[in-house]
Write a structure and sequence with these properties.
By secondary structure, the chain is mainly beta. The protein has one domain. The protein is built from three helices and 17 strands. Strands 8-10-11-12-15-14-13 form a seven-stranded antiparallel sheet. A hairpin with a 2-residue loop joins strand 2 and strand 3. The chain starts with 14 loop residues before the first strand and ends with a strand.
């Protein structure tokens, strides 16, 4: 169980979605993977550095509760504005405990109904845990110990970025030996839009390795354009976005 390190986290945090995803540049400017062992449990930390603009996400800190035992905290996701134009998203999760939970929810894709933008994984190995008490913001996990593959991801839901169509706007990143994919997803119903990040963290099993999985999305260029326009409109208005 995670205790003291998160009791005094500042709640006055500001995060920003990057419009770099509207171009060929990656929304993710850097990523760091860390591990630590506490009382025999392996904790995995994934920090991503986002290139930012004028679309701001309201302050957020989302604990990850054990769905079988809600008093147990398995991790936390927090968003922190570190400088104008740069935002850090920090995920820390008790990997050992999460993989021991028998009642994880099986998942087939993102909240908008599209498949996960990850190739080289078993589709039956995708599971999720709600972030805090949200029904649409989730931690995603795909573990294949036999193949030494682990993918971590998350979706942070907000209807504000919906373009009224089903589309994704993702870009890849490769930083410090970590490969991944991040960006926006849009749906037509409430709760089907937001932003997501996925990363190949297979190195936590055996140390540095060649990439174990690959990332790709099938959204057509014509479907991306309404979502790009929606982002530009939000940016022009300097919109504040609430994650729920």
């Amino acid at each position: 169980m995670i205790a003291a390190p998160f009791k005094h986290l500042c709640l006055a945090l500001t995060a920003v979605i990057s419009l770099a995803a509207c171009s060929q540049e990656s929304v993710i400017r850097g990523a760091e993977l860390t591990t630590q062992t506490q009382q025999g449990n392996l904790f995995v930390g994934l920090k991503t550095h986002l290139d930012s603009n004028s679309i701001q996400i309201m302050n957020v800190q989302l604990p990850i509760y054990n769905p079988d035992s809600p008093l147990e905290i398995l991790g936390v996701l927090q968003v922190n504005s570190v400088a104008p134009g740069m935002t850090d998203v920090d995920l820390l999760v008790n990997f050992t405990r999460v993989t021991q939970i028998p009642s994880l929810k099986a998942e087939r894709g993102l909240p908008n109904g599209t498949f996960f933008p990850v190739m080289g994984t078993k589709t039956d190995n995708w599971y999720s845990i709600p972030l805090s008490d949200s029904r649409i913001s989730k931690l995603y996990l795909n573990v294949d110990l036999a193949a030494s593959k682990v993918v971590l991801g998350y979706a942070l839901g907000t209807d504000a970025v919906s373009a009224g169509i089903i589309a994704n706007l993702f870009t890849g990143f490769n930083s410090n030996g970590i490969t991944g994919y991040g960006g926006l997803y849009s749906g037509v119903q409430p709760g089907q839009s937001g932003f997501a990040i996925f990363a190949d963290v297979s190195a936590i099993l055996n140390g540095p390795t060649t990439p174990k999985v690959f990332f790709a999305d099938s959204t057509s260029e014509s479907s991306k354009r309404p979502l790009q326009k929606r982002l530009w409109d939000l940016n022009a208005k300097k919109t504040w976005i609430r994650v729920r």
